[in-house]
Amino acid sequence: MRKFTLILSLLVAFVTTAIAQTLPATGKAFKVENDRGALAINNDGTALIGTPNVAIADVAQKNFAFVQHEGKVYLYSVWASKFVNKDCSLTNSQPVDAITVENVADGKFFFKYDNTHNVNLGGSGQIAVNDWGILDAGNQFTLVENGDFNPEAALAILSNSCTITYNFVYNGKTVATQVTKINKGANYPAFTSLPWGVEATVPTGTADADETVEVVCTVDT
User: How far apart are CA 191 and CA 29, in angstroms?
Assistant: First the structure.
């Protein structure tokens, strides 16, 4: 029994070590690259791109940081001073999409926003945030440290937020829930989606703190 317990303990320790995550340092900037190219921001400062598929004017457009806030991680363009969302757009206001950082072999990283938004570079270095989650040359990235990074401005964007939870109620029962972060003082957010035939009105006014709002729904007959 003692032998079995010891073996089990060793297995648990091994598994724990194998899946342990090491997040990039918040106070550092990195180039995010692989054998196909590197992540960058376009010359207009509006979107995430891949090089060498798209030419950039300044190598600083390749500088990124991984900002940690309230247990989540966000991809931040140091050059543009904006966060990168899962549709490859940039933003300096809420909502901001969190990114998951997964360690893979040989000091490489795999990045995803969710199961259908994995960060990939195509064969020519073009960006492709898609549902391809199998590890290959396009989605295993190396982080090359490229100077210090002060996260103060980025953290201010993330801190200036409140969470609005909509509970959609029909016939006295909650049938759906939507959770959205907005900037403090912003108008209540629009509904992301409602089932076909269901109608509801977005609350009026602004929000300055986390809030749960009951939204009464009707059905168009």
Answer: 36
In this prediction the pTM is 0.80
Residue by residue, pLDDT tens for the chain (221 residues) are 444 444 444 434 433 333 445 788 889 999 999 999 999 999 999 999 999 999 999 999 999 999 999 999 999 999 999 999 999 999 999 999 999 999 998 889 999 999 999 999 999 999 999 999 999 999 999 999 999 999 999 999 999 999 999 999 999 999 889 999 999 999 999 998 787 888 899 999 999 999 999 999 998 76
Spatial CA neighbour of 37 closest among 53, 58, 48, 61: 53
Output phi, psi for 130, to 5 deg. -145, -165
Continuous H helices in the chain? 2-18, 152-159
CA dihedral 64, 150, 46, 137 (to 10 degrees): 10
The residues, any chain, with a CB within 8 Å of residue 126's CB and separated by 6 or more, are 49, 50, 53, 54
Residue 204 vs residues 22, 67, 208, 209, 215: alpha-carbon distances, Å:
43, 32, 13, 15, 12
Residue 139: which of 22, 39, 65, 23 has the closest Cα?
Answer: 39
For residue 116, what are the β-bridge partners? none
